[in-house]
Amino acid sequence: MKILNITPIFPPEVGGPATYTLEVSKRFKERGHQVRVVAFTNSKPQMEDLEVLPLRFDYKILGTIFRQASLFFTVLFASRGIELIYLQDPMVVGLCSLIAGKLIRKPVVLKFVGDSTWEKEYGSRRTDKDLEGFLQFPKAGIATKVRFRLQKFVFNKVDKIVVPSYFLREVLTKYYHVNPVKISVIYNSIDLKDFERVARENLRGFKKRIVTVGRLVRHKRINRIIKVVKQLAEVFPDISLLIVGEGPERWSLEKLSEELRVTGQVKFYGRASHEETVKLLHEADLFLLNSIYEGLPHSVIEAMACRTPVIATNIKGTNEVIENGKTGLLVNPDSDEELRDKIIQLLKDESLRKKIVENAYHKVLERFTWEQNLGILEKELEKVI
Fold first, then answer.
1. How far is 332 from 313, CA to CA, in rounded Å?
2. Which one in 23, 106, 295, 357 has a CA-CA gap of 20 to 30 Å to 5?
3. Domain 2-189+369-384 shares a fold with domain 192-367
4. Domain map (residue ranges) of the chain
5. Residue 33 CB coordination number (10 Å)
6. Cα–Cα distance, 120 to 40 (Å, whole number)
7. What is the chain's Cα-based Rg?
């Protein structure tokens, strides 16, 4: 195949679409396919022996217009000789790339991993509804309604949509009225070579280190983890929480830590590379994800690969990865008390931790590796061509 991979973000910048685009492009090239990448980036792109066409992202005046015009003409230029356009976002790169693809009569496939429009509404506190509640009864301003309609247009006009969970497939069919025939569920994948380290228990000893990883945004509800750590410190004086990631909620989270007087237990690591994140997951004794929304939590899969026990909220997407009591512990997303009790249970019960991490690691082997999923993606793209 000859593939044009288009992404809104690319390494060395950090983010899910950046990591995925680099990895899938490299692996397709290793299989003998021709891959060309178009990426928005203000940094020198990490080439990795790939053909990368960088586009400037930061414009001081009329940024959206210049970005999209630049993207449109670059896609037209970069599409010479290619057989398929593979998009990594429905809005930032989706609409103009789709129009360009239709003009030159190339099939377009979209990778959809989450509804950024709802995330923006929830993060700005313009709604308190979860994703499905908001999509079912949307109350939003004109700009947000336009974004949703543009997304719906892209979803229904591309030739194929790849999603990492059955939950996202349900969102597309139920709320955006996408024909389910053109949606393929292909789970997120990792390379286990990145996780071949000594067993977590033998690394530095058991010290009640908790880690959470992700963008510091409202729907991750890290503020409630900090409040629970305040309570846990009364039971485990040596407990610690490491928060890995950056985002708009950092200032308020740091302020909360100061108000609760847990700055000795709670540390903010900031943005981390993938290699740094894997190391921190290996060193942790427990991984927490307290989100109310996940398309499919890649951080949970990585924690499982590190043999670090996981506690997460029992929500759609996440419960496709975690089987409660077998590969992790799931908690009611509305109960801080249950979250606290589950943490205490797992920190005290060594046999439960061992059972969970072994089951979780085997589930990663079975479902969430590139060896399992790249061939599936390859076949789906070939069908479209």
1. 6
2. 295
3. yes
4. 2-189+369-384, 192-367
5. 17
6. 20
7. 21
pTM above 0.90, yes or no: yes
Q: How far apart are the first and last CA of the chain?
A: 8
Tokens of 123: 């993060």
The CATH class for the domain spanning 192-367 reads alpha beta
| CATH architecture designation of domain 2-189+369-384 | 3-Layer(aba) Sandwich (3.40)
And the tokens for 157?
A: 């006009």
pLDDT in tens, the chain (385 residues): 999 999 998 888 877 788 899 999 999 999 999 999 999 987 888 888 899 998 887 776 766 788 888 999 999 999 999 999 999 999 889 999 999 999 999 999 999 999 988 998 999 999 999 999 999 887 878 888 888 899 999 999 999 999 999 999 999 999 999 999 999 999 999 988 877 754 444 455 677 899 999 999 999 999 999 999 999 998 899 999 999 999 999 999 999 999 999 999 999 999 988 888 999 999 999 999 999 999 999 999 999 999 999 999 999 999 999 999 999 999 999 999 999 999 999 999 999 999 999 999 999 999 999 999 999 999 999 999 9
d(C-alpha 189, C-alpha 371), whole Å: 8
Question: Can you tell me the distance from the alpha carbon of 149 to that of 114, in angstroms, rounded to the nearest whole number?
Answer: 16
Amino acid at 27: R
Tokens linked to 232:
């846990």
